[in-house]
Amino acid sequence: MVQFHIQPDSEIPASTQLYNQIRFAIASRQFPPGHRLPSTRQLAMQTGLHRNTISKVYRQLEDDGVVDAHAGSGIYVRAQGDEGGSAGGRSPLAEKYPQAYKLVQKSLDELLSQGCSLSQARELFLSEVDWRLRCSARVLVSTPGQDIGAGELMVSELEQALQIPVQLVPMEELAQVLDQARSGTVVTSRYFIGEAEAIASPKSVRVIPVDIYDYAQEFQKLLKLPKDSRLGLVSLSSGILRAAEVIVHSLRGDELLVTTAQPNDTYKLNAMVRNAQSIFSFDQVSCAATKTAVSKAREDIIRPPQLVCCENYIGTKSISLLKRELGLD
């Protein structure tokens, strides 16, 4: 334990003597960063000073940024400069995410090496963060009006995954909506990315494409269907139905009799469940509607169709990437 000595007959006040000795102990690393200083009781016994005088010295050290007082724990030497940690004036997040903090330091060093001043680097970081916050504050899903069902699927899944409100805007109305409020992020299927970027990019609005689920498992089941099977395809998206019909033909040629329906087309859906031997539903809405139609028609059909239900429309990787881009991950 470091010993402190007070000269009672000195012209230098006792509090100043103690203050300087503690500062020297810290500067010489006798008290390293994070070290707990002696209690006022311990110092009072060692130096003969009143505890109130010692408390005054400790408050001065704290005011000078040399130590940190932790209620119920004690007085600790504060880390300085590159010694890191929140005690050195850095954010506690630097300790929580050390690798991310190192990345920030590296990025800042790179900016400085390119001639940016600290103020300019700060402006660059803040403007990017501010822009991303504005983008995540408003998420727009946009698809052409002729396939608005695909947009409805994306809105449903994104609101569930992101836990934020998502607005559906037909592509034909997107320019007008962005003119009214340019901040935000436009999300669309990769099918429609070209059209969405042509509208949003001139307005400096970010567009993020999402990939649809690949349906690989479902198409493997398709390959195993007996020849001449009657196959039904159901989706809220008319675009998915057109694509699925083309893919089925490319995989099986004319071996299967294919019919399609959207879940809100009650007549076609009821006819399908009575005639099809297998039905593939490509989203949650279609799955629920198909199951309901089969249940209602059960008394009228000898053998219910085999149902293959797909739960997702958007690929899981796209959801993860979108969360990261919006700062929600």
Question: How does the helix and strand content classify structurally?
Answer: alpha/beta
Shape, principal axes of CA atoms? elongated
Q: Please, what is the average pLDDT? A: 85
The rounded Rg comes to 34 Å
Strands, count: 10
Distance between the termini: 48 Å
* Sheet with the most strands: spatial strand order: 4-3-5-6
Q: How many discrete domains? A: 4
Reading off the top of the CATH hierarchy, the class of the largest domain is best stated as Alpha Beta
Determine the CATH topology of the largest domain. Rossmann fold
Assign the CATH architecture of the largest domain: 3-Layer(aba) Sandwich
Helix and strand pattern:
HHHEEHHHEHEHEHEHEHEHEHEH
Q: Count of helical segments?
A: 14
Could you list the spans in which at least 5 consecutive residues all have pLDDT below 50? 84-89
Helix content: 40-55%
Report strand %: 5-15%
CATH superfamily of the largest domain: Response regulator
